[in-house]
Amino acid sequence: MHLTRLQIEGLRCLREVDLSVNSKAIWLAGPNGAGKTSVLEAIALLGFGRSFRGRVSDGVLARTGGPVQVVAHWIDAAGSERISGLRHWGDRWEARLDGVAQDRLSALATPFPVLAHHPESSRWVSGPAEERRRLVDWLAFHVEPIFADNSQRASRALRQRNHLLRAQAEAVEFDFWETALADAAEAMTRARRAAVAALEHALERVWPGLAGAAPAPRLQWRAGWREEAAPLRDLLYLQRERDRELGYTTIGPHRADLLLGRPFGVESPQCSRGQAKVLALALSLAQVDALRQWNGSHALLLLDDLRAELDLGHFEAVLDWLAARGGQVWISGTEPDPRAQARLTPLQVFHVEQGQLRTESTVEAPRQAL
Fold first, then answer.
1. What is the pTM of this model?
2. Per the count of CB atoms within 10 A, which of 29, 178, 183, 329 is most buried?
3. Domains in the chain, start-ordered, CATH in brackets?
4. What DSSP character marks residue 60?
């Protein structure tokens, strides 16, 4: 999958952007604050239905009173031309895929896999469990067609159970929603475990290029309840009175976590800042590789401020990995890096200045002498 045209309007400092894309490697160059990350953010909106920098209502909208509008022309794995469009006001949205209105943002995201890696991605290592659930759920969503439905069912049942807990409802009122939550949660957990297994195999392939001889971390999924003790339906019943006191549900898929083992010989929360960056990047690349291995899809990869996040050795290792894979990659940085220009050819460069993309160039591979 790769983009051929990208149109953006009303996103942060970007007013009207219209890019014609003719390469599978794109570098967005410009000073800090120019709008490079906002271009990546626009692509991510189509692939996630949300920004990786926060809610659309929290600063994504430009101060014009109008909506964010993003339209992408792209080629899918079968070689067909597709068009995705999203108009977002912060509290409401309109989406279209190939000219047909969609009633769910997941309808845009399903055929349009996008993986965004940015400075905050290190929270996969050092942040709360919610960050790691998102990591796993991205892959589960793209490899298990019904995962999104099960996730929505679980979220609805969880909200209803929490409402009953706070309302001090009668016991009989809990049965339906606890059964619904348990059924959806167990289906989610099967998909999540399959995704973690695929991610771990992919991580074993990616890890040596980034971490050398250090053993790849062993991944472990915790479902969010003691699976060995009893089915979730029974545990929810047993936990009901305790949850009444607290006013919320303390077990379930919303409490799941991905354990990252002992990369670099220490527990992942004790990794240094540099080690956390390497591990997070390895997880990003492994996600893309796992998806390709699973169903042949090449996710569109967004790498924000990549050179600033890595030392030279790790940066070159990532470039080598990118050069060997299929799929399109968008990289942002203050200046086009000569190493990227040498390895990722042809490399299309867009210069971003004050929310405008003023010039562009394409660096071709040098011709071999006859």
1. 0.91
2. 329
3. 1-113+302-370 (3.40.50.300), 118-296 (1.20.1050.90)
4. I
